[in-house]
């Protein structure tokens, strides 16, 4: 990992390099994924079972797709009490945080005879994709499902690929059961997305699909968008740490590594006002990496997309951070609450020396489904808002409409929409007779 002076870096080159991490070309996968989706749309369960046998090596029947009550019982037998206790702490915190995001319908009547408002309605049916096998993350079950539950979604269906023995990852099952979600289907990949989008005999159609997955899942989500809504297509994970002289190099290095271990395309960047601290962090990165199980992934990530940048002021640091618009932004500085005002673009902001990124991933409460690859400039974390719809409301009595009828008809006439004009005119024709 290089240590560079801010004055020596080309910001545009750095940003282009970071954007280039998202090297997956969905066009390469469109044809094969579209074929899978078409098969599911036409053949339903038959296609699901065929693809599950082909891709997962598991032969199921339609009756096997839905997880049965006894499978939840067996899952609880396979996980530790400590895991369940940790889950329950996380659930409580995540639910409490997202409960503050609820919106209420509202109505106003500032003029006689006129009522305006907005009606909030939860999405009726949501599908959550959960990766299976070694890539199964129960924390993602919580982060995707809890905001939907808080929003009032009436039905939540989960899909996840089965293990080789036809079961489902027990950690995932327990996480779902703790939330009261029992509609879980043993199907993964693009075929699972197709089932949620189009519906089959066993899996009813949903209105929105959320959750992470591999390139085939991501491509399928892109292709079914329009039939259903989706959350986002997240790219490789990333962290940016702004550190001043008060930062502990061991902490900063550990936090950078927590994201570098995700993927060889992950980005870990530190911007600091101290050259001495920068060198200490570099030394710590080398030392701590040697002790990690995913050392090869970490080393590749840091070599390609890791940097330590030395700036003269925190103002320079925040300016660069806003351009990068990181998924995770840590402010490891003496006065983080003063610096946060300067941050405009970040998925999640961690304040101070004792708020590591992993705290947000699991237990604190804010959602860990975050915008990546610079999209924090216009996207937000997954939230209750993603699971509601807004309908505008308006009521005019005859007197109120009469006051604005001429303006409405003039605007309609200018646009050449005479039927629009007539819809107002007919309501007052009796006055002209």
From TrEMBL:
GO terms for cellular component: cytosol. Gene3D superfamilies: 1.20.5.1300, Nitrogenase molybdenum iron protein domain. The active site is at 327 (proton acceptor), 328 (proton acceptor). GO terms for biological process: L-histidine biosynthetic process. Binds 1 zinc ion per subunit. It comes from the Bacteria. Its EC number is 1.1.1.23. It catalyses: L-histidinol + 2 NAD(+) + H2O = L-histidine + 2 NADH + 3 H(+). GO terms for molecular function: histidinol dehydrogenase activity; NAD binding; zinc ion binding. This is Histidinol dehydrogenase.
């Amino acid at each position: 990992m290089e240590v560079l002076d801010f004055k020596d870096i080309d910001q545009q080159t750095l940003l282009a390099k970071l954007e280039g991490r998202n090297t997956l070309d969905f066009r390469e996968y469109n044809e094969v994924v579209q074929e899978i989706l078409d098969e599911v749309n036409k053949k339903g369960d038959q296609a699901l079972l065929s693809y599950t046998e082909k891709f997962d090596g598991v032969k199921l029947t339609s009756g096997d797709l839905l997880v049965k009550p006894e499978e939840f019982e067996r899952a609880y037998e396979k996980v530790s009490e400590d895991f369940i206790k940790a889950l329950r702490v996380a659930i409580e915190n995540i639910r409490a945080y997202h409960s503050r995001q609820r919106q209420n319908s509202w109505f106003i009547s500032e003029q006689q005879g006129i009522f305006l408002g907005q009606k909030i309605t939860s999405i009726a049916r949501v599908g959550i994709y959960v990766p299976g096998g070694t890539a199964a993350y129960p924390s993602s079950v919580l982060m995707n499902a809890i905001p939907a539950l808080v929003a009032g979604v009436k039905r939540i269906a989960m899909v996840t690929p089965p293990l080789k023995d036809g079961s489902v990852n027990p950690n995932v099952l327990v996480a779902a059961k703790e939330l009261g979600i029992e509609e879980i289907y043993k199907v993964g990949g693009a075929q699972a997305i197709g089932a949620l989008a189009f519906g089959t005999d066993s899996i009813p159609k949903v209105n929105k699909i959320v959750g992470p997955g591999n390139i085939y899942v991501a491509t399928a989500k892109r292709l079914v968008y329009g039939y259903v809504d989706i959350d986002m297509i997240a790219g490789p994970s990333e962290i940016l740490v702004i550190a001043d002289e008060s930062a502990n190099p061991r902490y900063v290095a550990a936090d950078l590594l927590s994201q570098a271990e995700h993927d060889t395309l992950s980005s870990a960047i530190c911007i600091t006002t101290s050259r001495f601290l920068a060198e200490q962090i570099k030394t710590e990165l080398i030392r701590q990496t040697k002790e990690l199980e995913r050392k090869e992934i970490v080393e590749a990530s840091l070599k390609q997309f890791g940097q330590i940048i030395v700036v003269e002021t925190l103002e320079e640091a925040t300016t660069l951070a806003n351009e990068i618009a990181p998924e995770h932004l840590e402010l490891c500085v003496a006065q983080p609450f003063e610096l946060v005002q300067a941050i405009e673009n970040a998925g999640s902001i961690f304040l101070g020396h004792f708020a590591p990124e992993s705290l947000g991933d699991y237990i604190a409460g804010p959602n860990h489904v975050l915008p990546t690859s610079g999209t924090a400039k216009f996207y937000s974390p997954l939230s209750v808002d993603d699971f509601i719809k807004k309908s505008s409301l308006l009521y005019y009595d005859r007197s109120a409409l009469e006051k604005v009828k001429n303006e409405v008809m003039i605007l309609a006439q200018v646009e050449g929409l005479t039927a629009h004009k007539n819809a107002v005119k007919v309501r007052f024709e009796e006055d002209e007779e």
